[in-house]
Write a structure and sequence with these properties.
By secondary structure, this protein is α+β, with helices and mostly antiparallel strands. The chain has one domain. It has a 5-stranded mixed β-sheet, sandwiched between helices. The longest helix is centred in the N-terminal third of the chain and has 25 residues. It is globular and about 40 Å long. About 7% of the residues have low confidence.
Amino acid sequence: MKQEKKQKQEVCNEIVRAAEVVHFVFGPGKPDATYQRYMCHELKLAGLHYSPQNEPENPGYGEKDFDLIVENSVLLRLKSSWSLNGIHREKLLVDLKLSKLDAGMLVNFNKPAIREGIVKIDSDDEE
């Protein structure tokens, strides 16, 4: 169990590093698609396996979130929004439950410093 948690933490650390590179290159304020495309590129360069998370359209939100499952252990949601509020965190929690994963990250690239825009949820830490 400790090995699994350590591996998950290493995956999260690599995701943060990839987000830092993408944010350094593009800065805040670009369209979501820019961050999505280059985040996938950086994850690939880091040797991380990822797959798109197919979710049904959510007409109530007016937009489609871009989700990836990284290394079959972390649900990653990428955004470029003025701010993140409780609904973003709650939606990530619901998606984690539906995906049967226990770790998730929400990365908002529309911040001056990328670490200000990263929210990590790990149900192992909340037990």
